Amino acid sequence: MRVALSAALCLSLAAAAVPAxxxxxxxxxYSTSNTSIPPSQSFLLGGDQRRPLRVIGTNTxxxxxxxxxxTASGETLIARxxxxxxxxxxxxxxxxxxxTNLSSDAVARVQVRFSADTSAVGMRxxxxxxxxxD
Length: 134
Hints:
Blueprint: H1 2-9, E1 31-37, E2 42-46, E3 53-59, E4 65-71, E5 74-81, E6 86-91, E7 96-101, E8 108-114, E9 123-126
């Protein structure tokens, strides 16, 4: 029942909008984060996990965000998520989920639920003013 409820709460994009490699199977969630992302910054989730990381998110703020998968070999855009829309993706092991605020003057807000123990998943911000370069 919890998986069905989580899927219902997420306003998912059409399946064709998410690359097949990042399509999400059913899985239970361990953690939820309501995250504010400053203008022009990115929120990074994961990267060192030993198992795939499933993330379901909803853009609860006033501006669009990009969701991408980042590996040592590059970045793959998964979705551009407008306010009120959602995303649902699996990030393979050692892949970082990157949620980028596309606005240069407004704070983005997203709610993310993810399938990993928080002690094993890193979270941080990058970009202008975050203390680390993009």
